[in-house]
Amino acid sequence: PAAGGRAGTLLVNTIIDACVECADLVTARRYLERARQRGVVDAVSFNTLMKGLLANGKEAEAHKVLDELAAAGVPATQASYHGLLHARILAGDRRASWCLVDKMIAAGARPNAVTCSILLKMVTSPGHAADVPRILNLIEAVDDTVDEVLLTSVLEACLRTGQLATLSNLLDR
């Protein structure tokens, strides 16, 4: 095991998080790089830096950090993609949102209820009706329990897109 083990990783993640909270992204990146070289990083290390970059409008840099995570051989988590996915949805870029979902699946990070809730935020008009069945397919495949919040989001998406038959089928389940 790498020097420092789990305790070292927890310490590094705490330091990176403190740097991000203080908006000192240069120092956060420096700690991430040092920890990566020592083999005491995990997905949380990278995710925390991505969170800080996204909070400061540096989406392109956050994408690079996601690529660095993969290059470092660290398995991505769903959370590794959620911030980037949310940013693309806020930008109204549905195509890039679905590309991120595809990349997420290819990396072995299966979408979960949070992923689906984020995706449902992009379903804002009848023109987005094609997204609803695709999101529903993801929901059916998730291991998470469909909670009240996710169900409400699905119902709202069906109403916004005029998919009353889909809504009726959901309510019959």
UniProtKB/TrEMBL annotation:
It holds the Pfam family TPR_24. Gene3D superfamilies: Tetratricopeptide repeat domain. PROSITE patterns: PPR (PS51375). PPR repeats lie at residues 42-76. One of its GO terms (biological process) is RNA processing. One of its GO terms (molecular function) is mRNA binding. Residues 57-166 form the Pentatricopeptide repeat-containing protein-mitochondrial domain. Keywords: Repeat. GO terms for cellular component: mitochondrion. The keyword Repeat applies. InterPro entries: Mito_RNA_Proc_CCM1, PPR_rpt, TPR-like_helical_dom_sf, TPR_mt. NCBIfam families: PPR (TIGR00756). This is Pentatricopeptide repeat-containing protein-mitochondrial domain-containing protein. It comes from Alexandrium catenella (Red tide dinoflagellate).
